[in-house]
Amino acid sequence: MESTQAVKQRFEIIGNDASLNRAIEKSIRVAPTDISVLVTGESGVGKESLPKIIHALSHRKHAKYIAVNCGAIPEGTIDSELFGHEKGAFTGANQARDGYFKEADGGTIFLDEVGELPLTTQVRLLRVLETGEFIKVGSSKVQKSNVRIVAATNVNMIEAIKENKFREDLYYRLNTVEIHLSPLRERRGDIHLLFRKFASDFALKYKMPTIRLSEKAIKALENCSWPGNIRQLKNVTEQISVLETEREVDEATLLHYLPKSSNLPSVISEEKKGKSDFSNEREILYKVLFDMKNDLNDLKKLTLELMEKENDETFKEDNINLIKKVYGETATEKEFSDESHEEQLEILQFPNQKQPKETEPKLEDPYDYAEDIEEEETLSLQDKEVELIKKSLDRHHGKRKPAADELGISERTLYRKIKQYDL
Ligand SMILES: Nc1ncnc2c1ncn2[C@@H]1O[C@H](COP(=O)(O)OP(=O)(O)OP(=O)(O)O)[C@@H](O)[C@H]1O
């Protein structure tokens, strides 16, 4: 049996914390068996390494290992991805396709974010786990597959069961052995070790001298609560490696990069006491901008159609709600004069948006100008969106569910945005 140390080296796992060592030892021990394993822990703690260890140290190591991110696959296609489909099973299914269960026959499938699986898929998964049988989408023929499942989740599965989002029988079937990875804030001794490893990797990658921290900066790094865990520490190390010209990083410099408020527990608790989580002015503004983006899209749609269907009464009647939403309750009673258009445009000018100087000649083609606005606006709004999401995640210590609730978007959408913006 390989030693924990050897496994850490082989899989480039950094850290000496007892909880990390225990998780690795457990993985080594269950690897030769076919026991189902559920890896639990917050987002970014390093859950992906454990299924790889389990596969590589098992008798399945010569067959395929497939990692599936259940949260990133749209609900409509997940059954087909996992179990395959027959030709003509749905619109666009021009060819029959094998799913991961067929492809990984004899090997291992890692189901990351298993808590995100739709209930209908959970039923199919339970069947394949219990009997090894599955049916392709659009088929009636039962097929067999011998696959080991390792699943991972960062949501509280007991809560998900209570809320009827996850089947209890499937949970117990997946969770024969649970391996838990602690959040980074509970393994503070590993923080600087990880930082040094990432700093040296990025120095190699970007061909720059390695950054180092002053004593005080090391303390600040270790005292940070790291809501995004190791993923966030890695991102911060990369940012400093690239952006700082001075390779000796002091505390003041480091603080610019640390997740705001996560190293100020008193601020967090004060914020939590407030009724609204968006309790400071800046954040309220961001929230308003976020909402304005949607209004702006509605406005664009309406304006475009108005331009095409000027004075068409049927159009106004059909769009009464949209018109009221965008222009206010009394809007339909007055004409859309030039003045009211200007008012709307004024509201849509964001502070960091380039304004045409008064002395600049007026652009001949109004559409060119409109395109400029749209592009820059999208950029600045995207920044705000990223910041808003980051703040909400910080506030909820990286927990996606309350952050998604706060932002008024689904957990699945938040998940995609985290991946899209690499947060
Ligand atoms: N102990 C470690 N040593 C070195 N790098 C690590 C360690 N743990 C995590 N990482 C790195 O941190 C990043 C995040 O890890 P990983 O993707 O495994 O997290 P996760 O727990 O699966 O997150 P999620 O639940 O969001 O998928 C990866 O780039 C990974 O390589």
Give a short overview.
This protein is an alpha/beta fold and 423 residues long. It is built from 20 helices and nine strands. It has a five-stranded parallel sheet, covered by helices on one side.
Characterise the protein shown here.
The chain is α/β, with parallel strands linked by helices and 423 residues long. The protein is 53% helix and 8% strand. The protein has helices spanning 4-10, 18-30, 49-56, 75-83, 100-103, 119-131, 157-162, 168-174, 191-206, 215-223, 229-243, 251-257, 265-273, 281-308, 313-318, 320-327, 338-347, 366-395, 400-407, 411-420; strands spanning 37-40, 65-69, 108-112, 133-135, 142-144, 148-153, 177-180, 212-213, 248-249. The strands form three sheets. It has a five-stranded parallel β-sheet, covered by helices on one side. A two-stranded antiparallel ribbon has the order 4-5. Strands 8-9 form a two-stranded parallel ribbon. A hairpin with a 6-residue loop joins strand 4 and strand 5 (142-144). Helix 6 (119-131) packs across helix 8 and helix 18 (366-395) packs across helix 19. 28% of the residues are buried. It comes from Psychroflexus sediminis. InterPro entries: AAA+_ATPase (IPR003593), AAA_lid_NorR (IPR058031), Homeodomain-like_sf (IPR009057), HTH_Fis (IPR002197), P-loop_NTPase (IPR027417), Sigma_54_int (IPR002078), Sigma_54_int_dom_ATP-bd_1 (IPR025662), Sigma_54_int_dom_ATP-bd_2 (IPR025943). Residues 13-242 form the Sigma-54 factor interaction domain. This is Transcriptional regulator.
